[in-house]
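Give me the fold.
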Amino acid sequence: MNVFVVLAQMAATFQARDTAPAPTAVLVGAGDIAACDSKGDEQTAALLDSIAGTVFTAGDNAYSSGSASQFARCYAPSWGRHKNRTRPSLGNHDDRSAHGAPYFAYFGARAGVSGRGYYSYDLGAWHIVVLNSNTRMKRGAPQERWLRADLAATRARCVLAYWHHPRFSSGSEHGSQPQTAPLWQALADFGADVVVAGHDHDYERFAPQSPGGEADPDRGIREFVVGTGGADLRPMGAPIANSEVRSHEAWGVLKLTLSDGAYSWRFIPVAGKTFSDSGSARCH
């Protein structure tokens, strides 16, 4: 065979590999999960049993103080059976025990550098950032500087971040957490698409919005509050700006299907409950 023909075929093969779309990936989970006096975590873990993909946690993994005993007795029997595919985040209840030492010991390398609480990974065509809303978040703080460097380094078009305290929330117990604004600002500066949080024990979906809470359908970030992992649910407050869907009726998990340039979402309630939410959107 002519050497030029061979080279042309090799070039075409490499080009096809470079342009092939990344496989669709699933990210599924919730926050505010396991308490030994609640059966909600068992019910949401049963949902995970039949959903393939990477499991996320939006903080407050083990109540009430994230102790080693609570991880062993409360979290491990339910969500713990999915530990090998879980990428967790740290909640304020987890942070109560020696600034999360049992949390880091339980999850090991899957929680990033021990003691830090923020890390990132790639999932399909997406770049995923996990942040720690229990530590300093101001502009110029180590985490914020790390976040900007991490976002500058990724080549992914689509970016999703999750942490515990929601920037925006209509929850009656906690509501919006303005201390997280520098994280949202950094994500917005680099064109991120989705943020997931917990802390308020309910489900809420927001329209894409700016760091200041103004509707921004073109460049805004869509936020989901998913504090429905199994801890006691709490009533919602009055809806704040850009809140599209909210409910405190059911424990459940958020399933995000991440494709090349787009995503879809579905809130899946535990058995016996009917509330759900679904939709899709494209990345910026």
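Helices lie at 3-19, 40-49, 68-75, 101-107, 142-153, 181-189.
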